[in-house]
Amino acid sequence: MTRHPHGRSHLHRGGSPIGAGLARRAATLAAAAALVAALSMTSGAVADEPSRFVDHSLLIAPELPCTWPSYPFPRFQITHQRRIGPDSAYNVDVLLIDGNTGTQLDVPPHSVARPDLNREKSGPLGLAFTDRIEAWQFGGEACVVDVRDLLDQAPKGVSPLVLRQHVERFEAANRPLRFGDVALFRSDYSDRYYRPFPEGRRFIADVLDRQAPGYPDPDPDCMEFLASRGVMALGTDSASMGPLPDLAEPTHYAGLKHGMIWTESATNLGALPATGAFYCMLGPRHEGGPYGEGRAFSIVGGELPARLIDSARNRRAVELSPVLSPRHPVTNPGIGSGEHRQTYLKIDFLYSEYLDLWHHAHLMDAMAGTHLVPPSYALPEKELDEPYAPEVRGWLEEYERRYGERGFSSLTTEKVPLDWTCGPARVVDVRSLVGSVERSQWPASPEITPALLEAWEAEHGRLREGDVVLLRTGHLDAHYRESPEEAGAWADPQAGKAEGWPALGPDAVVFLKSRGIRCVGTDAPDLGGVDARRALMTYWALGSREMVGVEFLHNLGNVPDGAYFLFAALKIADCHGGPGRAIVLY
Prior knowledge:
The protein is of the alpha/beta class and about 575 residues long. It is about 20% helix and about 20% strand.
């Protein structure tokens, strides 16, 4: 993120065209790509190697230079609102975070004005916010353009420029770039300079204060050249895609006007081959976001990268995360007064006159929208200084008699391996349970049992180690509504005014672990359901078996057989939840 030279901020944070315009452009580029693909089908991996995940995301923490340092951009904050103990059975965190935090995504409205504004830079892409980018565009074949020779090769406060010649150098050594590629500029800038404060000032602040050379970045002509190749996604391990001091906005507009999206502040690009790896960038699906915080990663080796690259190149993808909006029920309202989680708030802090948009941050529960449930959510790190409340102690005794020791965990979100939350999608339809609980028993959720899972296996095949089990309840598809019609999602089931959503029981967790399952997802608000005792046992069972959950999905009915599930939570230090985004490629 950079400031306008006259002090007014101009949004240059990052997308793709919308609707028919994007489809026509993508079809044209795909046809051209097919011709180029025939010239070269390079792969940086050996087919019989095991596939492995490579993380390209910076750790987000208050002691790191993870936010844009110019006034008035907010600093990242994590608040451990509740700790496991007498007041809470869970670790509950609240985040203050804006889209310029850590490794981040830029989409077109960062620089392209809305069409209704009728300005020089207006166009349909001015509506291509982070929540509207189509799922296929987040992935592609990583093409690593080595520009390490530019690192620090400029005066203080000035960015060395990545030129079209650098891209042509890559093409001469490898192959022509094409539609479906993700061009990644590797300078090793973040690897070298992303450090805790005070040393971390070198990452952005010292550059802005003209005390250190700028980070390498492409000039506008380089962007135009990449657009001519049909490239729709880029990435850089610099702090921004905008060269300092005066080319930030021209470079942003030169790429974003073509519908590109890109990753800023990536890291560890040196772990990739020049071509052949599958690259992906996922982040929370904030409504109206002209940029957004995200999680970038690659898959290297084996046959999986080529399979996923082909899916993304041919736009075979399904979005599984609902849009996040303050008007929607994205966080748990709780059972009883004072038990609600932090509501999802959009906080405007800086206005861009040209784009008629506000820079905004979000104050939200760490489990807002689609999110990760790590083991440390329900398991304490060590023996409690103060015990659970008496009722919960009784539940724990009951749990341990039946399922064994609850145990402890320090496995917070940033420590959960990426390959735990990605894998072959196995959608288990549990909608037959809806309507099975007598009204007199409400509030209660129908329980997903081992018998139901075994019956599903008999029809669809045995679950295998590495599969991601996705429980299709249909609940959010039916009840995710704007205020004032949102009560059906959370509030009515919790209050006993409606049946709860189908929920995973602890016995089913034990069964899934016996099959080698590491990750379970649901298109309901959570995996535990509306009965507090049974829900806690489910989370204890998951955590003690080092299993994770992905909650608050939707659209599982459109996941085809053979699809591959991709989810990644924001890489936030010491976080007991973690917002993210889920898609499948097929």
